[in-house]
Amino acid sequence: MDKKNRVPPGQIVTKIFPVLSATDVPEIDLKNFKFRVFGAVEKPYYMSWDELMQMPKIKRTLDENCVTHWSRLDDEWEGISLKAILERAKPKGAYTMHYSNTVGYSTNVPMEYCMNEDAMVAFNFNGKPLEPKHGGPLRGVIPNLYFWKSAKWIDAIEVMEADRPGFWEERGYNMHGDPWKSERYSENQGSVSDILKKILKVRQHRDQE
């Protein structure tokens, strides 16, 4: 597929990797790191960083599409297969919630996207350790959804029988987030200006803390 046909509607291709997040960059001590899988599963579990690194690794060349209209093409990501992580817990639900190490951040992802052979929790980006400002040491990488669904600093996944909104979804972002359908915002959000005001309010509150 040529590059033109790989870019969803309303997106602009860039070589810049913008830094956008709802929270400040956390300091994460890998010696005390714990990755948790819980919820509607047969076998909930925790893993240390070293244990996580023993899980099946994958390397993929992927595109990223941000809800703020930028796209990057042909980035190489390396990480732990998300399918392997979830199958170990024997999930019983059709939805997941991905949690960040930062307080309060989460995003919902349908199970079918987590089971994609390209989905992962990534630790390397274009051959180098993923920088903290971009979600390192570990971030979700969910192909085929807007990039906010790829949670930075991920350290837990909850399997759910029923879908529910995460951080930005509660503030007006779309529950699904398919870039090819331009699923940026909720149909009930009111207007784009309303959601921008909510985003600004969240960032102002963060800066004051």
Give a description of the structure:
By secondary structure, this protein is an alpha+beta fold. It has a single domain (3-164), classed as Sulfite Oxidase, Chain A, domain 2, CATH 3.90.420. 18% of the residues lie in helices and 30% in strands. Strands 1, 4, 5, 8, 9 and 10 form a 6-stranded mixed sheet that branches. It has a 5-stranded mixed sheet with strand order 3-2-11-6-7. The radius of gyration is 16 Å and the shape is globular. The N and C termini lie far apart (46 Å). Mean pLDDT is 90; it is low at 202-209.
Topology:
Blueprint: E1 12-13, E2 34-39, E3 45-48, H1 49-52, E4 57-65, E5 70-81, H2 82-89, E6 95-100, E7 106-110, H3 111-114, E8 120-125, E9 128-129, E10 139-141, E11 154-160, H4 167-170, H5 192-208
Task: Estimate what percentage of residues fall within beta strands.
Answer: 25-35%
CATH level 4 superfamily: Oxidoreductase, molybdopterin-binding domain
Span from first to last CA? 46 Å
- The level-1 CATH class: Alpha Beta
Output the radius of gyration.
16 Å
How many domains? The number is 1
Mean pLDDT: 90
Q: How much helix, percentage-wise, in residues?
A: 10-25%
Structural class label: alpha+beta
CATH architecture: Alpha-Beta Complex
Overall geometry comes to globular
Order of helical and strand elements? EEEHEEHEEHEEEEHH
CATH topology assignment: Sulfite Oxidase, Chain A, domain 2
- Could you describe the largest sheet, including whether it forms a barrel? 6 strands, mixed
The total of helices stands at 5
Unreliable stretches: 202-209
How many beta strands in the DSSP annotation? 11
